[in-house]
């Protein structure tokens, strides 16, 4: 019984943790090859508070998973520019419900 309770408490804790994480999707203009993908990946994996970077050449998108202290949209856009590309659209999704803000 005690173990059961611990498991429940632990899962509740995990849900709270992931609720604070956000997924940021950036449409990027100018990606043409694997080297582009690589430079964007490197750019974002060096950023603090980004836990996962997923760059899709096919969809011309960068998907970032952030922790609760999400870098602001301007910082993300600037990082794309620094890597040599143009950020077209940034969408922020909080957990499963999307309250996306387009910019
Ligand atoms: Cu390239």
Reconstruct the topology from this structure.
Blueprint: H1 2-20, E1 22-29, H2 34-45, E2 50-56, E3 61-66, H3 73-82, E4 86-94
Bound molecules: copper (II) ion.
Copper (II) ion is lined by residues 32-33, 35-36.
Commentary on this structure:
- With 103 residues, the protein is of the alpha+beta class.
- The protein has a single domain, classed as Alpha-Beta Plaits (2-Layer Sandwich), CATH 3.30.70.
- The protein contains three helices and four strands; from the N terminus they run αβαββαβ.
- The protein has helices spanning 2-20, 34-45, 73-82; strands at 22-29, 50-56, 61-66, 86-94.
- A four-stranded antiparallel beta sheet has the order 2-3-1-4.
- The radius of gyration is 16 Å and the shape is elongated.
- It binds copper (II) ion.
- Residues 32-33, 35-36 line the site of copper (II) ion.
Please describe the structure with a list of short key phrases separated by commas or semicolons.
four-stranded antiparallel β-sheet; 29% strand; alpha+beta; 40% helix; binds copper (II) ion
